[in-house]
Amino acid sequence: MPRTFHPYDPRYTAPTFDELLEPTKNVLATAHPLVARGNRPLQMNFEQQLRALIYFHLEEHTSGRHLIQALEEDDFARNHIAPPDGIQKSSFFEAINSRGLEQLTYVYEQLQSKASNLLPAQHTELGELVGIDGSLIQAVLSMYWADYRDGSKKAKAHVGFDINRAIPSKIFLTDGKEGERPFVAMILSPGQTGVMDRGYQCHKSFDQWQNEGKHFVCRIKANTKKSCLQVNPIPADSIVFHDAVVLLGTPDVNQTRKEVRVVGYRVDDVDYWVATDRRDLSAEQIAFIYKLRWQIEKFFAWWKRHLKVYHLIARTEYGLMVQILSGLITYLLLAIYCHKHYREKVSIKRVRELRIKIQNELRHSEERYPMASDFTEQGSDVLYAKT
Which of 329-348 are b and which e, b meaning 16 or more Cβ less than 10 Å from the residue's Cβ? Predict the structure, then answer.
């Protein structure tokens, strides 16, 4: 009697896809298993959920329905990604919106630590640099929790980005109206330097971060009042035109209690004013650190465009965090893979090569092992070709 291949049958796999996911193997072994609620058994365990979400991002699916169709109709996805008995649309979306967040958070944290130890660090002479920024996520009106303004719903991802290794570090999700400054203290660890745009300027926070041993390089408004305490020498022919230790703000109103160094420099006829507590670096190095902040902007743009992270497959705050974390996990896996094989950062060229390699392996697999309908079952476990 004809039968189909058993799901996850090694004869219908793409070794490259499994290699991409290999860093998750030991992590999954120590993650808490998903537990069914009530008497109904789970249709999809956590490993299957994770594989499906990584497949969603890697293959640039544009919606949850697109992914469900692939899990039903694509031979590789059906036999190597989907649960053994398949997954119904309602069960899939229920799982995404209500299960797996604890496990995904654990996998992300473990992978982020592994990538940090594996990937080479650049600009080590500047210290541990963390780009900090918020990114708005377009929501739909039914997402009542994503408060932004009348007639518009948006969520906001607050992200820390490891500039030295070009990988994300920490992530928080709120509604679109939530302020960004409070998340700096949660993203930064003592000894690290947060690199931020003008939206994070807050003189009270500048004092707080210094008290906590957290450094900062933050662009400030040009008209910010500065009470000069010390002027530092400036090298000739430098882009820097100002370097001084000051108290920022208006006395008895919003002036900093602690001294702050302010560096002013000019690039392409644009003046930049940057506040920092770093006095161990030159003014040119401070300017260079702020330039590196653009890496997080490039990351957001690449992540959204090529991994389809913000194409909503969830409507709840819980489910959106599941989706975002899985996108970050996919990026970390790609970073580890690109470093291992090319000693390069993630690029769309390498991701396309990866996708093509997986497809080529599947074609070769089909040539070596014809479809299950070309086999008959003899005994309990062996498939023999029809003659």
Answer: bbbbbbbbbbbeeeeebbee
Cα 285 from Cα 189, distance rounded (Å):
21
Beta bridge partners of 265: 240, 272
- Same domain, yes or no, for 52 and 98? yes
Residue 190 falls within a domain, yes or no? no
Whole-number pLDDT of residue 11:
57
In this prediction, residue 379 carries a pLDDT of 40
Q: Are 314 and 378 contained in the same domain?
A: yes
Q: Where are the alpha helices (DSSP H) in the chain?
A: 15-21, 25-30, 46-58, 64-73, 75-80, 89-98, 101-118, 182-187, 203-211, 283-292, 294-307, 317-342, 348-368
What pLDDT score was predicted for residue 9?
Answer: 55
pLDDT digits (tens, 9 = 90+) for 42-64: 889 999 999 999 999 998 888 88
Angle at 119 between CA 188 and CA 304, to 5 degrees: 70
Whether residue 128 lies inside any domain: the answer is: no
Residue 86 domain boundaries: 10-104+307-385
β-pairing, 152-162 vs 167-175, is antiparallel
The pLDDT score that the predictor gives to residue 224 is: 96
Rounded CA gap, 9 and 365, in Å? 11
Question: d(Cα 358, Cα 363) in Å, to the nearest integer?
Answer: 9
Same domain as 346, residue 271 = no
Which regions in the chain score pLDDT beneath 70?
Answer: 1-13, 38, 365-387
The CA distance from 339 to 116, in Å, is 12
